[in-house]
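hiii, so i know i said id send this last week but things got crazy w the move. better late than never?? heres the sequnce for the chain we talked about at the cafe, plus the structure i predicted for it. fair warning i was half asleep when i ran it
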Amino acid sequence: MSEALRYDPSPSRRRQLQLLDLVVRRGAQHVDALAAELGVSSMTVYRDIAALETEQLVERHRGAVTAAMSSLSEFATALRMGRCQAEKEAMSARAKTMLRPGQAVLIDDSTTLFPLVNELHTLTPITVVTNSSLAMRHLGGMTGVTLISTGGEYVSWADGYVGTLSETTVRSLRLDVALMSVSAINQGWCMHSDPRFVSIKRTMMESATAKILVVDHTKFERSALYRIAPLSNYDHVITDTGISSDAQLQLEESGVPFDVVTPLVHASAP
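okay and structure toks below
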């Protein structure tokens, strides 16, 4: 994976994301408990909370901190980027083998596909359609890449675009391949917590000849409010070796071809 897209937060940012992860997973947390968990002073925790409040990621009420999003909501982009990074790299490497120069490829706003973005220069000429602001920033300067933005309503926590304008753009195109991810998979259904993203993802599927779903094992451990489509509506699924036997059974019962890839292992720094 290119270093340009490797997520490497500063120590303070890493601690903030750890704090955010705690309140997302455990619910309301008191400042003193967070300080003890993180091994820092209460004053440091207050500073971290203030930074996260500025980003509208947490809320504070009488000494207790909660995530600004509901338990069914997606994590903020910064937090999602730090999750399952080795798995995402391995899955993106497999997805790359399914592409070829000259294609029109859609990459959605999911962080799962970020490791693929900097590798697209090896497949030029290629046309990339995306609703991901982060992907646009990295692809815009690549020689041989024709970049098409969906436009639309910007959603800050996803760093992506949705809405009528975005969907109209996608409908006007005929895509060779759509590479996508989802928030959750439950009982054979792909799901998302935000109906705006459900709508754009359905439109993407309708506009693509081949639909490839790229999901790490944690997506099979979650649920969300809205159904996007059954697994069987995809042409191929790529996941990782962390999936449970129940998750693999869902894939087998769907009848869709799937790959289970081994996460890449990076050498530890001395």
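btw The longest strand covers residues 208-214. thought thatd interest u
miss u guys!!
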